[in-house]
Amino acid sequence: MVWFDLVIAGLFEVFWATMMKLSHGFSQLGFSIATLVGMALSFYFLSLATKQLPFSLAYPIWTGIGAVGSIVVGVFFFKDVISPLTWVFIVMLLVGILGIKFTA
Fold first, then answer.
1. Which of 20, 53, 64, 80 is geometrically suited to a Cys-Cys bond with 58, CB 3.0 to 4.6 A?
2. Which of 11, 1, 21, 2 is CA-nearest to residue 64?
3. Where are the transmembrane segments (predicted)?
4. Tally of CB atoms within 10 A around 64
């Protein structure tokens, strides 16, 4: 259950970052509220995960999910252009996240 909480926290991080983009600098009320709700839920689930997982494990995995997830959202929904070399580093980030998880 603790890993579920951590993944949910990471997904809410992607959610709030996406909503922040859609809020256009917090000028759109609905998306601004969604950003704040997403932040609160992300931090809540992270706090649940850190009750049982070491902080040095939970935090980098949480931020990694948020980073990779935000890249995926940017590419597929906002049509961001990522160079092939950048994709190599994204894969390295994923390998690093998995490495942290499996060696902790």
1. 53
2. 11
3. 26-46, 58-78, 84-103
4. 19
Is residue 7 packed enough to be buried (19+ CB in 10 Å), middle (13-18) or exposed (0-12)?
Answer: middle
28 by DSSP, 3-state: which?
A: coil
The one-letter code for the residue type at 102 is F
Element (H, E) at 52: helix 29-52
Q: Which sequence spans correspond to the domains of the chain?
A: 2-103
Q: Are 40 and 65 in contact (CB under 8 A)?
A: no
In this prediction the pTM is: 0.89
Q: CA-CA distance, 25 to 36, in Å (whole number)?
A: 13
Sequence letter at residue 80: D
> Per residue in 30-82, pLDDT tens?
999 999 999 999 999 999 999 999 998 999 999 999 999 999 999 999 999 99
Residue with the two structure tokens 């997982």: 53
